[in-house]
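Lecture 7, part 2: worked example. A protein chain together with zinc ion.
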Amino acid sequence: MIRLSINIFRNEDLSYPIYIGNKIFDNLKEEVNRLTPSHIVIITDSIISSLHLNYVIKNIQEWNIPVSTIVIPSGEKFKDRKTKEYIENEMFKLNIDRKGLIIGFGGGVVGDISGFVAATYLRGINFILVPTTLLSMVDSSIGGKVGIDTPYGKNTIGAFHQPKAVIIDVSFLDTLPEVQFRNGLVEIIKHSIIRDRELFEFLSQNKGSIISKNYESLVKVIEWSCRIKKEVVEKDEKETGLRKILNFGHTIGHAIETMSNYKVLHGFAVSVGMSVESLISRNIGILSDEDYVSILKILEDYQLPTNLRDIKYKLNDKDIIKLIELMKGDKKSIKFNINMSLPRTIGEMVETFTLTVEPQQIIEAIKSVN
Ligand code: NAD
Ligand code: ZN
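Predicted complex, written out as structure tokens:
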């Protein structure tokens, strides 16, 4: 078992531990006991509940703390206001008071919505995350962003609310479908490119054991990846500078996701995004040919898409213009200039965190992967 400690703003109250290992219920128990909750509310989704809930409940029931479960349907489309209201109503019916503790048990959808309920229920109660997808283990569990989607966009209502602990048990990944597993690998590869060449090399050399979900390798890369996100987030909680580098691959990735009406999975859209943004970086003379080729190779080695054909998605000229318009609305854009976080070499991003890229450069790069 590995223990990382996250210290947001170097503020003791906002710091929390992340445990990473195999079967780490003792750590969950220890963290729960520390908080002395009046009631535990496990929030999970229908798929995880059918696979893993009995096992979790059986353990928690032995702790002599009242425990209830709220199950929401699985899927991004339920990360909305209606589901939030449903969870809150259930919690009121259960008389959960300010000492109640939410355990968000599931992927990023469950984590984001349960964290957001925790942020606003009775003006804020404690929550702990037990992530069950690779993506939620290495990405959404760190940094305290919680929220929901609206018809006006993804994550358009939310808050910053840090969990009290994150318990990462890699054995939950046994049941995770392969596509979802690869979806999460994208963020790990991203973390290596933006910050750590050594991790990049480890990933390149240990593909077999990672793909086959060898626990030891998984614990190692998850810990490594969490450490990278943690270091970035600790330095810049509210994304005013350094944290922007986490958006590598996401300017183009988000636009592809939106254009496809979210049919393309986030990780796969970001994988294409990293491939195109690396190409842009190479074309404008920032990234070397050699590093560009290595980035493409690692994505291909992990069977991740590097061009639009791989995701069965072809864009005509009109679509490309639309894609550019979408990017102008990206959160990093200023006065309609498209700003991207581009790699300088593997392991380092451009020092200014983002760079303005001419639409023509983007169009050219997209056409070459279309
Ligand atoms: P998800 O929560 O929808 O999970 C994907 C699918 O896998 C779901 O069908 C789920 O039921 C199923 N599943 C989960 N764990 C399983 C397991 N162990 N075995 C079998 N099936 C399992 O998706 P996700 O990719 O984990 O998260 C995506 C969400 O995370 C998005 O809403 C995104 O906005 C959010 N996110 C948030 C942050 C943040 O900083 N807060 C960062 C990245 C992503
Ligand atoms: Zn992402």
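The pocket of zinc ion (ligand 2) is lined by residues 139, 187, 250, 266, 270 (CB under 6 Å). The chain has 14 helices and 13 strands. Keep this in mind for problem set question 3.
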